[in-house]
TrEMBL record, chain A:
Keywords: Cytoplasm, Cytoskeleton. InterPro entries: KBP, TPR-like_helical_dom_sf. Activator of KIF1B plus-end-directed microtubule motor activity. Required for organization of axonal microtubules, and axonal outgrowth and maintenance during peripheral and central nervous system development. GO terms for biological process: central nervous system projection neuron axonogenesis; microtubule cytoskeleton organization; neuron projection maintenance. Its main location: cytoplasm. This is KIF-binding protein. SUPFAM superfamilies: TPR-like. Gene3D superfamilies: Tetratricopeptide repeat domain. It is found in: Cytoplasm, Cytoskeleton. It holds the Pfam family KBP_C. Belongs to the KIF-binding protein family.
UniProtKB/TrEMBL annotation, chain B:
Keywords: ATP-binding, Coiled coil, Cytoplasm, Cytoskeleton, Microtubule, Motor protein, Nucleotide-binding. It comes from Aegotheles bennettii. Residues 1-332 form the Kinesin motor domain. GO terms for cellular component: microtubule. ATP binds at residues 88-95. Residues 184-203 are annotated as: Disordered. It is found in: Cytoplasm, Cytoskeleton. PROSITE patterns: KINESIN_MOTOR_2 (PS50067). This is KIF19 protein. Residues 192-203 have a biased composition (Polar residues). Belongs to the TRAFAC class myosin-kinesin ATPase superfamily. Kinesin family. It comes from the Eukaryota.
Amino acid sequence: GEARVLAVRRAVLEYELGVNHTDTEELSAGEEHLQRCTQLLEPHRLSPDCVSLYIQAQNNLGILWSERDEIKTAQTYLESAEALYNQYMKEDGNPPLDPSEHFMAEEEKLTDQERSKRFEKAYTHTLYYLAQVYQHLEMIEKAAQYCHTTLKRQLEYCGYYPVEWALNAATLSQYYLSKQCFMESRHCLAAASVIFSQAGQVPSAEDSETEQDQQDLRQRKADIARCWIKYCLNLLQSARKLLEDNIGELDPDRQMELKAQRKKEEDEKEKGRKKAVLFGTSDICDSVLAMEEKVSSVYPLDFQEAREIFLVGQNYVQEAKEFFQVDGYVTDHIEIVQDHSALFKVLAFFEEDYERRCKMHKRRIDMLEPIYADLNPQYYLLISRQLQFELADTYYEMMDLKVAIGNRLEELDSHTIKKINSLAQLAIKYYELFLDSLRNPDKVFPEELEEDVLRPAMVAKFHIARLYGKLITSDSKKQLENMQTSLEYYTFLVDYCEKYPDAVRAIETELELSKEMVSLLPTRMERLRAKLCPFI
Amino acid sequence: QVALRIRSMSAAELAAGARTIAHRRDEQVVVLEDPSDAPHASCSREQSYIFDVAFDPTATQETVYRATTHGLVTGVLSGCNATIFTYGPTGCGKTYTMLGTDGEPGICVRALGELFQAIEDTSGDTEYRITVSYLEIYNEMIRDLLNPSRGHLQLWEDAGGTVRVAGITEISASSAQEVTQLLARGNRQRTQEPTATNRSSSRSHAVLQLTVCRWHRGRGLCRGRGLRRGHLFMADLAGSERAAQTQNRGQRMKEGAHINRSLLALGNCIKALSGQASSKYINYRDSKLTRLLKGSLGGSSRTVMIAHISPASTAFHESRSTLAYAHRARSIRTAV
């Protein structure tokens, strides 16, 4: 009756005071008022006139305790609010009174629609705050789930800024990628693209503001494209990991296994889909689905499937490069090109024909070499090294392929020999450039290598050694020289690992082979020398 | 490094009946009193903040220079980068610290003087070239203060490694006086901010860039070996009165357990999920100022921030938020 009405009104006032104090960092006073508020409402907390206020008070208590760094206490308040919401919706479900209505005249009172909107908004905040709490508690999966739900509810209840929402969804997709949850990742990206397209022209009076906004829009669109690139790349690379054997080639047995398994899982996938948290008010649901259908979310198991995903990724590369041009956005541009190169590299894995594989690697060279040439290594040291190494590896790969192709023929013709040698030389060149980049300003190679460059440096040395061993020449003297150089590089590896035993872990396989070569090569060289100068 | 400077009480503040509530307790500690009369049950009336160095109203321009900027100049001469910011609400002395007056020159002028003096003093086989550019960033738009008729300029990242402002005027300077004159001219071109408090989005930063190019004589062109290039950025940041609003949106500096009220910060929460994942995350706060100073905020470069507050009781809230912000800024460094 009357007492109840007064109590609730008093609770509203306590709530407002509590929030006020909390905002001004007077936490004890804030806590006092908020506690009084919940105490007053406690016996009636499930009824329509109290539930919203109670939840909001608990939200604020959660925030308050987080300010005190007592995150677990915050968690209890917020989870209690969450439970209360669920209970209310189950047992009653009618749009409850908004706290502001307790001081409104009859005619000012809100519509049910408005009440529902505000109530849902309060609950969305509960979930959002919980997301942050779980994150602080390092319950990352749960935090992601709550972020996801918050995003969903923003679409349905809270109002949102399309660009911002889209970026958040795209960022969330990257989280899902890191967990190999491709279906969820794709869904987030598809929704991001759909919602982003809602952001049309931003109306503005001043010209320059519009220009800036246009610029922003274009950049954000490119950002989302980059997230899609990562999606395609990740999906392909994960599939590769599943399919490759111990020498990095596609294992046909595994392929058959996985295909069979996939057939079985198709039914389960459908069920899984229905359970997943989907974005979508009815109007965007179809658009999101349409976007999703453009690219697979299951592992590609053969070249056809891989190629389809590759093509989607490549399209987004073009889209991203439209904005992130070399002139003006060097770092971003290069990263995109590196991704493009990675797409080719992983597609090559699925390609059976060696010649076609070679062509894919050639595409990589063509896109990376010019960029590398223009880069100032003094300022872009890390990227420069990455490109050097990648170019070297690609040439190395191509050389190996040419040798394999050549081996199928009866005899190597001079054209193929020239090709193999030239590829080998180019690989050597770039590995050397990489190793040079490790020298200190006085051009001395470091005695001990730092952890992050240790393995690449060792691999570079190892590959150079092997490449000198692969060079084909009819001149025996030259061949001896090559073998000598090869031996020197193998020896470097062995010696380094002796001096710094910790390094062994980083290059076990290469070290073993190097040791073998160090013992074999001198004998071979002796024999060759004997052939050359039989009279000595 | 973070420094704090308390300005002296202004005539207007005295006239309004304000009393001093900000005190410098010792070389590094500043104390702020809560001036309100309302009784507080459990919160203290005083809050103290530690900085690398604190200055009270009696500190001279020379003292401030010596303690904050002097050390950066030598680095710049040998090719390092340095950035110095002034931060604080409008009217608390940022421009005074940066530029000063004719009689009491600020750190900009002193740094220039020291640079040119050092150049004169060094041995004959080193050549120097100093270029100056002065720009304003207002509402994410860049204007060249030395040539404002060019309109708005774009940022450019080139393969050489620098983020530059495309087409900005870079004037070769031969004396400190010349540069000071340029600065004065440039200042008159700064955007007048509307005095009404409704434009919360307006922020005008002024950035002075001094580039010192040094190389050994006899080796020919600037691009030859032995070239060292150092940059000194001096940024007079916009009034921080609105800082409280942007704090919710920006990157959180201290990884406390503090919950962000506003849904605007949802992005930060999502971004943090991936941790240091190699997947691309979207750069939310890619402001023009950040991009421009990106190179100079790197590992080998030094950054100094001088925060400013008024001592008056009438400015309590602004002072408190400035102190809190500057204090948090300090902890970034120690975490790295």
